[in-house]
Amino acid sequence: MSIGRITPAALSERLRHSPAPLLLDARRRDAFRREPLALPHAVPIHMDEQPPQLPDLPRSTPIVVYCLCNGQASSTRVARWLDAAGYRDIAVLDGGWPAWLAGGGVTAVLAPEARRQIAGWTVLAEEPQGDLIAEAAFLRGLALPARRDLAVLFVDMVDSTRLFATHAPEQVLGLVQAFMEIVTEIAVSHCGDVHDFEGDGAMLYFASPTESLPAAFAIRDALAERRVTRPDLPEVRMALDFGPLVIGRIGGRERRGLSFIGTAVHTAARLLKLAPPGGIAATEAVMNHARASQQDHANAFLLHAEPQHLKGFDAPVSVYLTHQSSRRRKT
Fold this sequence. Notes:
Number of helices: 11
CATH superfamily of the largest domain: Nucleotide cyclase, GGDEF domain
Helix content: 25-40%
Number of domains: 2
Structural class: alpha/beta
Radius of gyration: 21 Å
Order of helices and strands: EHEHEEEEHEHEEHEHHEEHEEHEHHEE
Shape: globular
Largest sheet: 8 strands, mixed
GO molecular function, one term: adenylate cyclase activity
InterPro entries: A/G_cyclase, Adenylyl/Guanylyl_Cyclase_3/4, Nucleotide_cyclase, Rhodanese-like_dom, Rhodanese-like_dom_sf
Number of strands: 17
Protein name: Guanylate cyclase domain-containing protein
Organism: Solimonas fluminis
GO biological process, one term: intracellular signal transduction
């Protein structure tokens, strides 16, 4: 895989000389609406476009991809697409958009017609397979074990045990697959990844709540929409936290896996039982991020009447739950 990394300073220098690399800005369409600024002359790649579309240019064209999160998850994903399409000179911007801003990089408003800079587009035939997004993106180059702040999102199928009483095991497997396919696709499109599928649930992780919180609402809405045509699909409940985690490998010589150790993992797991069907539970750490940059999501939560005493924790935890009116209404 011919994917490199480039620092903001090195990219700034490259942009002063000809030929300058093609800049691709990888994010969802609603993210462009919320934050219209971008690197000058960047071309948007819509992460929620199905199937994904890529520029159809000479494969020797130098390309630099960046995304809004400092973990480079979406930009790494697009870089993989480009590599699979045959491009040979691809780099991901180290630290993404936050690093570019922190370095005093020039910005410009991304014009709606920016995609017209590219005359030809091609459809991604198939998602490339490979390492976990985290290992290829925001854990790349880190000596493990490593410590960094991450957002954790636990997803649970409500009343899944009942399925075994009403469905054959093969049917249950099909329902779990349909459920987790939606969860996985949305997690990856929001700069996240799945750490593990645990029976009727999954643990997802993201660089920050800026990605995990919109992902939680998108998962909830997508599963609710899918239940219209597949009513036996279970409802979902979710819980989020954010904080420092230690990431390292565990296991023996025959089999090793990536492990996430930290309070945020246990807090989110314990909060799951407090979320009602279709509901989302979140901690104060997540809400602080939401109030700063995602007020519409923050407004969807109400503080639980009493701080919760969670198993294994000495101090009570403030818990926020989505209220019923936060659910998307069909028109």
